[in-house]
Structure prediction request, 164 residues.
Amino acid sequence: MEPRSGCPINAAVEVLGDRWSLLVLRDVIFGDRRYFRALLTGSIEGIASNILADRLVRLVEAGILKRGTAARGQRAQYSLTEAGIQTLPIIYALGNWGLDWRSGTAELRSRQQLMRDEGPAFIEELMDELRTRHLGAPPKPHDGPGPFERLDAAYAAAADQHAD
Prediction:
């Protein structure tokens, strides 16, 4: 897919510039949703099945996701490519803007706040974990809980606090 111009911002926006593509990537990255049905039913924004199917095709064609082969009657699994993993800093930057300028629920904001508080090293750790999950890279050692466990704990703590 050739971009309309040679501008790198345009080239990125043509692939990532609609809201659904970024939300699908968010759900693959943070929700570990790798199958069509999980992405469809797990979308808190309520993505329509035809929109999801279209965005998955676009993201595969752009080299952001890879669609695994599925035998008849089996579901195809989607995996991030290295280009897909490299979208994490973009999603992180958008989330930081959202923390500063938009409202939201404490639970959903808690993960972004943790990433901001932990800083760039945490984003690198997340990217390494995504390489392990999606590309089969060997896991990198770390002390204590991994990045996704820490994100889940932040969400659970915010949900518990909100329930009180």
DSSP finds nine helices and two strands in the chain. The mean pLDDT is 93. The beta strands are 65-67, 78-80.
